[in-house]
Amino acid sequence: MRTVIIGTRRSDLAVTQTEWVMESLQEHIPASWEMQQEKIVTRGDQILNVTLSKVGGKGLFVKEIEQALLDGRIDLAVHSMKDLPGEMPEGLTMGAVTLREDPRDCLISRTGATLNELPENAWIGTSSLRRQAQILAYRPDLRVKPVRGNLNTRFKKLMEGQFDAIVLAASGIARMGWQDRVTEIISDRVMLPAVGQGALAVQCRADDDEMLEVLQGMNHRETEMAVQAERTFLHAFEGGCHLPIAGYATVKGDRIQLRGLVADPGGQPVLSGSSEGAEGVRLGRLLSNDLMDQGARELLDSVREGIQS
Ligand SMILES: NCc1[nH]cc(CCC(=O)O)c1CC(=O)O
């Protein structure tokens, strides 16, 4: 007998993701176990009026939840893989990676115009430098404005006319049940996804052996391999989702193909490359070295300076 307490942020998306994991977990836990949800408010949820890249980016949504795990107030945490920093605190581990949903980004426009059809100078709402850089590389005439808040807020701002279109992860939209609002799934040839986008990470304490065994049952091996390659690539730049870095791996059998890019937020230049093989960590390192040789470090240093000022 055990009551498993699962921590989640309280946004609709976080709760939906947690409930989805609880449902799949149901098939793997012993019959005598129970599950319970515990909602946690993070700093990232509280600071809604500041551009995320200016207040420290990635760790923001995750720290409080990790502390609750370490304190034993919760036993499991469900995170969007994309929001999970590269390094995990001592004592915690990723017990499972879930089957990845559509990793691509999507465009939601007010008039139904696709990325190609949007009028010149149209305003796009996104706070992601990765999305901004790739939009401007593809359509240099478009203009980008930051947008914060949860998915509901962003959608409302679009409908109020603050933007002509917004760009969001297709997976988040699908989990919210909003597929019918999507104007266009943007090809990953036009917009390479964020590292980990579309996958969920289930985190637990590293010494919780019975939990680790349960989680192993719901781990999705191919997604885990893809994400490992992507995260190794990202980690080499000491970067999070607040930098203009994209990385996306696909897995066929035991072959991994990894593509990555580092771009100037203004859309030029875009440094890109790919690597292929069987070992994710090696591929991630190879590709990051390739981009370093192309000048990625200098490019990112200047982006970091721009964010701080
Ligand atoms: N940046 C916030 C965030 N973190 C995770 C998702 C949902 C997509 C996912 O699970 O990868 C989103 C929303 C978005 O980027 O549109």
From TrEMBL:
Boundaries of every Porphobilinogen deaminase N-terminal domain copy: 4-212
Pathway: Porphyrin-containing compound metabolism; protoporphyrin-IX biosynthesis; coproporphyrinogen-III from 5-aminolevulinate: step 2/4
Subunit composition and interactions: Monomer.
Function: Tetrapolymerization of the monopyrrole PBG into the hydroxymethylbilane pre-uroporphyrinogen in several discrete steps.
Residue ranges of the TM segments: none
InterPro entries noted in UniProt: HemC, Porphobilin_deaminase_N, Porphobilinogen_deaminase_C, Porphobilinogen_deaminase_C_sf
EC number, as in UniProt: 2.5.1.61
Gene encoding the protein: hemC
EC top class, as a word: transferase
Chain ranges of the Porphobilinogen deaminase C-terminal domain: 226-291
Alphabetical GO biological process terms: protoporphyrinogen IX biosynthetic process
Other remarks in the entry: The porphobilinogen subunits are added to the dipyrromethane group.
Reactions mediated catalytically: 4 porphobilinogen + H2O = hydroxymethylbilane + 4 NH4(+)
Annotated family: Belongs to the HMBS family.
PANTHER family hit by this protein: PORPHOBILINOGEN DEAMINASE
Listed cofactors: dipyrromethane
Cofactor: record remark: Binds 1 dipyrromethane group covalently.
GO cellular component: cytoplasm
GO molecular function: hydroxymethylbilane synthase activity
Lineage: Bacteria, Bacillati, Bacillota, Bacilli, Bacillales
Name used for this protein in its record: Porphobilinogen deaminase
Residues with the S-(dipyrrolylmethanemethyl)cysteine modification: C241
Keyword vocabulary terms for this entry: Porphyrin biosynthesis, Transferase
